[in-house]
């Protein structure tokens, strides 16, 4: 177990985490600091450790970091929640991504924005769940959310993966007419 100074700040702890190159050792540091009296992690600490857990061999640890965020009632910006959703998307775990999306306010203290919607839409695509992706996109309108360029790029990706090239081409033409410049 690591010996921390009596007064440990999240800023100082983040520097220790950043210096630790081994992700398993970084997780052990996180666990040790979590037991340190009068210390709570900051959103920056959580964001840093979560970005290191995107690898398929490490994604299993995301759940316990999310639980730590929940128990510490750490108010985090959308970027922290996005990192979790993207970790699950990258590892074909769309149901876990959906659960996090649905509980963002409860867990992270922030509401999902367009980037969260796009990340979940992409999670369905990455796991070849086209129908769920299309239903989720239809849900955008019911919550009054306007799709952005990234949303349309994802929709083009869906069409191409489904080998619906005419649909992708039509969407590209529509985007050009609306002044949007696709970057897929």
Note down, in words, how this protein is organized:
With 184 residues, the protein is mostly helical. 66% of the residues lie in helices and 0% in strands. It has a domain at 10-111. Helix 6 packs antiparallel against helix 8. The longest helix is centred in the middle third of the chain and has 13 residues, at 78-90. It is elongated, with a radius of gyration of 19 Å. It starts with 9 loop residues before the first helix and ends in a 7-residue tail after the last helix. The model has no long low-confidence stretch (mean pLDDT 92).
Global shape: elongated
Q: Give the termini distance in whole angstroms.
A: 47 Å
Helix residue percentage: 55-70%
Overall pLDDT confidence: 92
Order of helices and strands: HHHHHHHHHHH
> Would you tell me the structural class of the helices and strands?
mainly alpha
Provide the low-confidence segments as ranges: none
- How many β-strands, per DSSP? 0
Q: Note the total helix count.
A: 11
Strand content: under 5%
Largest sheet: none
Radius of gyration: 19 Å
What can be said about this structure in brief?
This protein has helices at residues 10-19, 23-34, 43-51, 62-72, 78-90, 94-102, 104-108, 114-126, 130-142, 149-161, 165-177.
